[in-house]
Structure formats: structure tokens, C-alpha cells
Amino acid sequence: MLGADFVKGHGLGNDYIVVDGERFGIPLTPERVRLLCHRNLGLGSDGVLEVTKRVDGFFARIWNPDGSEAERSGNGLRIAAKFLSDHGYTIESTFVIVTAAGPVTTEVYRRAGRVYAVRLEMGRASIDRAIRSLAIERRRLDVTVVSVGNPHCVIFGEPLTRERLFAIGPLVERHAQFPQRINVQIAAAESRASARALVWERGAGHTLASGTSACAVATACFDRGLVDGKVTVLMEGGQLEVEVGSDLSLIMTGPAEEVYVGTLSPDLRQRLLEMQ
């Protein structure tokens, strides 16, 4: 079990703070999460994973840095699986983590006693056939809207540049078509076995990588006939391997790395306790 207050980990540069929800000692709230994730005033991260052990397994509550919650996170789940394995919560190589979107079967791969990669059975994707284009900036974007437990809008035919992502990412995230907001990717297939994507996450903004985004991009490219069933999705932080079944079932495999184990300072702890 974790003896410190938290662990900082990342999957392809998409970084999360991980806490044991029963041992952390401070109930998490949106305001407290925003401070913890603040890169100048807090620990700094793309989110917080609040992991708890249950009689029937494990549950991961996934917080975005703006204090909202995510139904699922592929990178977050790989980080959570590594946390549970490396810190002695389970000795099994295969186990289930439940999220707000349902259970995910995880399989960890170890080297020298530590987890270096995780395979996730992400369930079946679904595609919203009613939305094929989106009006933004007096033009229409070519899109595929995908759910992989959380919602994604994959955009095709746009330059894969940060400049373009920063211009349209926030507009698409908060578009009236998506009242609960949506994750956004600019994507393109590069071959029958690879695709490239830039990521704008709901509640977080630009991130270097996203596991569910990689699944959404692979699904959208597969549905358009651009790729085969095994796809390497390349993002700024690195690459993930995604398998897409004929029924749009998804398996994702990729790395997870622990950056450090930490203890809150008395000052930060006091600030958190003073918040609601």
C-alpha cells in the first residue's frame, strides 16, 4: 500500500496525480483538484486519479484539471493499473478497474518487478451517424463523432498543427452540438497501419497524448476504411497500439511511467483543508 500522499505518473507525457482515496485524508472536491493540478501553485498535472479498493475490485474516479470529472481515460487507466501493481494493491497480472463508464479489464506487463506497459480492453466504440460535419468559423469541418465511454469529435482534412488545434479545439469542445462538451482530435491516416493525431481534451485543453483519443482516432479511421484493424496512433507524446474489431471493440496497449512519489507540504495541505 502507498505510504506517501500521492504518486505522479504519466502515459506519453499525459500526467496524472494518483491518490489512494481511502488514505489521502482530504476529500477531493473540484476546488481542491484545481489547486492540486495547477502547475504553478500546486503539484501540476493533467488530472487526478482517485483510486479506491472495493470488495469486488478497484474503482478509479477521474478528475480533470478544471475540477470536472471524466467518464474514462486510457492513459489514466494505464497509470492507475501501474500504481495498483507497483504499490502492492494487487499481485495479479490481470484485474478490473471500474470507472464511471463501466469496467475495464487491464493486463500489466512487468520488467524487473515494475510495470512498464499496460493492455486495456476498452469495450465497444459507437459512432454518432447523425453528425458528419460541424459548422465552425463560417466553414464546415469533416468529423466523426465517437464514444469510447467518453465522447470524442475526430476532425479530418485540417492541418496537423498546434496553431490549428488551438484555434478550433476550444470551439469544438464547447460547440452547441455537444452540451456536455467533447474531446477533440485533428487526425489523419498515414498508412493502413498508422494514424497521426493532435489532442484537445475536454476539461484539460491541449495534451501531449490521450488513450481514449487514440482509440477514437483509430475507430474513426477504421470506420472510414482508411486503416486496417491494428493501428499505431502517433501523438506528440508518443504512440499507442490500438486494435479495432469488426464490431468496433477496442484493445489499447501502451506505456506507463512513474515520475515520483511525494508527500504534501504542510503549507499545501493547509491550503487544501481551507478549501471547500
UniProtKB/TrEMBL annotation:
Annotated binding of substrate, by residue: 14, 64, 74-75, 150, 183, 201-202, 211-212
Subcellular location: Cytoplasm
Site positions per UniProt: Could be important to modulate the pK values of the two catalytic cysteine residues: 152, 201
Gene3D superfamilies: Diaminopimelate Epimerase, Chain A, domain 1 (3.10.310.10)
Keywords: Amino-acid biosynthesis, Cytoplasm, Isomerase, Lysine biosynthesis
EC number assigned by the record: 5.1.1.7
Location (main, coarse): cytoplasm
Pathway connected to this protein: Amino-acid biosynthesis; L-lysine biosynthesis via DAP pathway; DL-2,6-diaminopimelate from LL-2,6-diaminopimelate: step 1/1
GO cellular component, one term: cytosol
Superkingdom of source: Bacteria
Catalysis performed (reactions): (2S,6S)-2,6-diaminopimelate = meso-2,6-diaminopimelate
Matching Pfam families: DAP_epimerase (PF01678)
Gene Ontology molecular function, alphabetical: diaminopimelate epimerase activity
Keyword Isomerase in annotation: yes
Single Gene Ontology BP annotation: lysine biosynthetic process via diaminopimelate
The protein's role, per its UniProt record: Catalyzes the stereoinversion of LL-2,6-diaminopimelate (L,L-DAP) to meso-diaminopimelate (meso-DAP), a precursor of L-lysine and an essential component of the bacterial peptidoglycan.
Subunit and partners: Homodimer.
Record-stated family: Belongs to the diaminopimelate epimerase family.
Protein name as it appears in the record: Diaminopimelate epimerase
Lineage summary: Bacteria, Candidatus Eiseniibacteriota
